[in-house]
Amino acid sequence: MASKTANLYARIEPELKEEAESILTALGIPASNAITMFYKQIVLHKGLPFVVTLSVPEPMSISSLGPREFDEELAKGYKDMLEGKTKSAKKVFEDLKKD
């Protein structure tokens, strides 16, 4: 192992940091070691050691949702409507015809 070290400073959401460090603690791996492992994998793969893509959400079947999940989906839709994140039916059908 190299005798010298370099400091790495990164900004990260506190909740994400706490959750990840909790898991690392349970595994017995210090955060600095996990970061070193990640960097070594980047070098070995000559890129990120996992595939990075934009996921395309699959259509949801209402029948697969429980009552709580159904209510959560309705609440999301209602919130989007209040925030103006909607499209007219005409626009939706125009977009479908394009694809």
Explain what you see.
This protein is mainly alpha-helical. Among the domains are: 14-45, no CATH class; 63-98. It contains four helices and no strands. The longest helix is centred in the last third of the chain and has 16 residues, at 67-82.
- Radius of gyration computed on alpha carbons: 22 Å
Task: Supply the number of helical segments.
Answer: 4
Q: For the report, how would you describe the main beta sheet?
A: none
- Beta-strand percentage range: under 5%
From N to C, what is the helix and strand string? HHHH
Helical content stands at 55-70%
Number of strands: 0
Structural category is mainly alpha
Low-confidence stretches are none
Oligomer: single chain
Separation of termini?
54 Å
Report the mean per-residue pLDDT as an integer: 91
Using the alpha-carbon principal axes, give the shape: elongated
Compact description:
Helices cover 56% and strands 0% of the residues. It has 99 residues and is mostly helical.
